[in-house]
Amino acid sequence: MYFEPYDIIVVGAGHAGCEAAAAAANMGSKVLLVTMDLRLMASMSCNPAMGGIAKGQIVREIDAMGGYSGIVSDRTMIQFRMLNKSKGPAMWSPRCQSDKMMFSAEWRSLLEKTPNVDFWQDTVLGLIIDGDQVKGVKTMMGGDIESKAVILTNGTFLNGLIHIGEQHFPGGRMGEVASHGITEQLKEFGFEAKRLKTGTPVRIDGRTIDFSKLIEQKGDDEVVGFSYTEPFKIQKQRSCWIAHTSLKVHETLRKGFKYSPMFNGRIQGVGPRYCPSIEDKIERFAGKDSHQLFVEPEGWTTEEYYLNGFSSSLPDYIQYEALRQIEGFENAKIFRPGYAIEYDYFPPEQLHHSLETRLRHGLYFAGQINGTTGYEEAACQGMMAGINAALALRDEEPLVLSRTEAYIGVLIDDLITKGVDEPYRMFTSRAEYRILLRQDNADARLTKLSYKLGLAKEDRYEKYLEKRQKVEDIKQFLNESYAYPDEINGLLEQKESSKIDQKKKLSYLLLRPQINLNEMIEVLSSLENYRTQDRFIKECLEEAEIEIKYASYIEKENELADKLRRLENVKLPKNFDFHSLQSLSYESREKLNKYQPKTLGEASRISGISPADINVLAIFLGR
Predict the structure, then answer these.
(1) Cβ 338 vs Cβ 199: under 8 Å
(2) Backbone phi, then psi, for 501, in 5-degree steps?
């Protein structure tokens, strides 16, 4: 094959690779997306769901930045739930079940409609490197393909090894070959590689499940979705179900522990602490008689179900025997057993915040190759790598989102400054400023930035401006309008909130924790115009309510965020020898020399760097 040179080659078409290709192409770069199987683009190789705690915020941020994950999720969802609604809005997280086959097909369709993206089904064997610059890739069939930058998004395929009991065989996913050669080449160039492990549960034939013995978990009546750009269309939903293990199930699983690759030392990679296998849960929580399982449908037109919480690498016959002892699964048949997979990753301290590698220019890593786990974490890294590769080709400064701007910024900063010793998963607790980083205001935080990059188009930007104006109008109305005792006291009494004896501003009443805006709209004639099912108006009302009700908390977090921004503005000398500062601890000098942070703020977040060390640096810089 003869290929003309490309601006950017993206290796791998998982969630990271697809977002990387979309972002770079939409910024005008000529992109080639290389993958082993074009039928499995953005494959949901684990659970068929997008979003969840903190992950839903990431999908919304990707959408606000002009990425495709939110659009694809909305078009292919089969159930939607807003998690944590009983808590404050900083914790609300959208999540959907997806039709996994439609999800891949929709991603492919969107990318094929994206100008500047070409596709090539092949295996990448290595990189073309000239000095410290990446020049392209070597493939099995196509030979050498030249480019100005390469983004590696190899997922679990780098030297992937699948384990089922005492069986083990190479593979990137079940039924797909592993990728060899890239790790070995990069190690020759000085990169450090390590091993991680993840796993997946049995897939069950839904025709053999007795759902009458399970607890039904329906979707929300009000479906919000992820994307800010499209009117939502889902008319019906499929239920999920809840099941439980028992001591009998645990005893059966324990019979296979002696064959477990996790317990007998065959698996060397570290697994995800927050998504452990069922055998790991039984071992770690030995006093627990039961574990909750979620039975999740994989699509509209299939009877395949995913048993969330039952991930295992035990022998297939042990998995099968234990499964049939779970209530409701007495006659269950499976499509395939669960398995564990080990794969190579590159500790992310070897990257700049742009996700470009420190050792070679033009080479970017995104997704599980950086030690993360999860579709959403991978997708946002891919998007940022695509953006920054495109910016580098324009000789423009990289885009680095701060911890005060986005969960994406928190994730990448954690990877670069703290590294990983287990698969990294995003949680709301990782964000210091989560009241600012809510799922409802991702467009307000990021659309303007995306528009400047050329990712968010004119119509999206106009819609953002319209929404912000509507939110401000609602806030002004609530600040200027009054409720009178005779029309509001009934609601206040019902909610066990003290009644009023004179008129009060609506915004003042909204500060009461027992009262919400929807309830006020139902009883106050002055709010009659807001009684609507229009999704746009409802979103504006929700954001206005949050901004009023939590104004003091938001103001406090903004003050803290401003302090962090001041540290981020203090630049450190490039390629500085920190060993020359004897007032720093030896550990700090070693780590600062290794990571070469660009700002005082970045230095402050490196594991092992103390506040005293930051003070030394501040004094050295004349601060």
Answers:
(1) yes
(2) -115, 0
Find the helix or strand (DSSP H, E) in which 26 lies: helix 15-26
Domain boundaries, the chain: 203-339, 458-555, 569-620
* CATH number of this structure's domain 203-339: 2.40.30.260
Q: Which of 88, 111, 307 is nearest to 214 (CA)?
A: 307
- Is residue 160 within 8 Å of residue 343, measured between CB atoms? yes
pLDDT digits (tens, 9 = 90+) for 191-206: 999 999 999 999 999 9
Write the DSSP string, 241-263: EEEE--HHHHHHHHTTGGG-TTT
DSSP letter for each residue of 542-578 = HHHHHHHHTHHHHHHHHHHHHHHHHHHTSBPPTT--G
Amino acid occupying residue 80: F
pLDDT in tens, 228-261: 887 777 889 999 999 999 999 999 999 999 988 8
**Exposed, middle or buried: residue 249 (CB in 10 Å: 0-12, 13-18, 19+)?**
buried
Burial class of residue 470 (count of CB atoms within 10 Å of its CB; 0-12, 13-18, 19+): middle
HSE-CB for 302 with a 13 A CA cutoff = 18
Separation CA 346–CA 154 (nearest Å): 11
Q: How would you class 125 by CB atoms within 10 Å of its CB: exposed for 0-12, middle for 13-18, buried for 19 or more?
A: middle
Half-sphere exposure of residue 8, counting CA atoms within 13 Å on the CB side?
Answer: 38
DSSP code per residue over 293-362 = EEEEE--SS--EEEEET----S-HHHHHHHHTTSTT-TT--EEE--EEEEEEE--GGGB-TTSBBSSSBT
Cα–Cα distance between 267 and 261 in angstroms, integer? 6
Architecture of domain 458-555: Orthogonal Bundle (1.10)
Band of the pLDDT at 47, cuts 50, 70, 90? very high
Q: Does domain 569-620 have CATH number 1.10.3210.10?
A: no
Angle at 506 between CA 501 and CA 511, to 5 degrees: 95
Helix/strand/coil (H/E/C) assignment for every residue in 313-326 = CCCHHHHHHHHCCC
Query: Does residue 556 carry a pLDDT above 70?
Result: yes
467 contacts 540 by C-beta, under 8 angstroms: yes
